[in-house]
């Protein structure tokens, strides 16, 4: 029996104020191999434009990932497969950017459209996360909640420079001004990081329609306590709507279970996140 078990669930909702949903979400688990992904794109540029841009991004990434597991991929070593995933992901993001730019050229009424993007892919115990904009990826474990992405936004730059506290940024009237997105220019710079997962994990990917209302502490509380874990997506959407629902809300959860490691360590709810040298630093203090 394959020791790795992957399960995903996702939900997107128009919210309580917007007339249309400009978010797109895609979730997939392979029936025969330990391969899964979640994609969240938050469109911008008007109702039609935002929805079009996010759909193009999600569809393009989905197409590339669905064709990943071919004979050439299976013939590679595990290290080569990881490198191939990284390259494929980068190529897919650039392809999505081109598709959006081409659509803007063909339809001038969509000239202002673009989209954020965050996606997570797991192959066996290898996790890779890519993002542009302020849609986020989180990982929850017995150490607590770890944010795996840093927003590409004006307020994040102000936080980094000490001009704002995170609490002040949450109330800022420019908190939705992003500095990177798909479909804005020919040159696109996604951030792509990877880790090795050794034990059980919950990953959350979401648009800012969720994080506008739920801070990291509230997100952690839901991931730590709400079961079944995959139903967290419904809880997140319901909570954001209850608190105002001014924006579209999207949430995807990917559940990683390493049966062999959990049995060996007798830690059914624990996971270790081991960053490579080039990866972002993650918090590892035990609670």
TrEMBL record:
E.C. numbers: 3.1.3.16
PROSITE patterns: PPM_2 (PS51746)
Gene Ontology molecular function terms on file: protein serine/threonine phosphatase activity
Keywords: Hydrolase
Enzyme class: hydrolase
Residue ranges occupied by any PPM-type phosphatase domain in the UniProt entry: 7-256
Tree of life domain: Bacteria
Protein name: Protein phosphatase
Species, as recorded: Microbulbifer rhizosphaerae
């Amino acid at each position: 029996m394959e020791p790795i078990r992957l399960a995903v669930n996702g939900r997107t909702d128009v919210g309580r104020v917007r007339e249309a949903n400009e978010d797109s979400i895609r979730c997939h688990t392979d029936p025969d191999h330990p391969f899964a992904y979640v994609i969240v794109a938050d469109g911008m540029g008007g109702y039609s434009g935002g929805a079009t841009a996010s759909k193009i991004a999600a569809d393009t990434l989905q197409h590339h990932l669905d064709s990943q597991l071919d004979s050439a991929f299976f013939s590679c070593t595990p290290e080569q497969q990881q490198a191939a995933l990284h390259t494929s992901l980068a190529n897919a993001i650039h392809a999505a950017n081109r598709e959006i730019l081409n659509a803007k050229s063909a339809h001038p009424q969509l000239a202002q459209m673009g989209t954020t993007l965050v996606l997570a892919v797991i192959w066996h115990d290898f996790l890779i996360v890519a993002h542009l904009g302020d849609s986020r990826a989180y990982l929850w474990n017995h150490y607590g909640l770890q944010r795996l992405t840093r927003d590409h936004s004006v307020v994040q730059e102000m936080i980094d420079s000490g001009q704002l506290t995170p609490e002040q940024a949450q109330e800022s009237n420019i908190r939705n001004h992003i500095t990177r997105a798909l479909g804005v220019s020919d040159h696109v710079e996604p951030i792509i990081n990877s880790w090795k997962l050794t034990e059980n994990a919950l990953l959350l990917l979401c648009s800012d329609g969720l994080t506008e209302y739920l801070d990291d502490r509230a997100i952690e509380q839901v991931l730590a306590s709400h079961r079944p874990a995959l139903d967290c997506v419904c809880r997140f959407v319901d909570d954001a709507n209850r608190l105002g629902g001014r924006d579209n809300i999207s949430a995807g959860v990917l559940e990683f279970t390493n049966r062999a490691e959990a049995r060996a360590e007798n830690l059914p709810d624990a996971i270790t996140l081991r960053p490579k040298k080039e990866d972002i630093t993650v918090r590892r203090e035990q609670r």
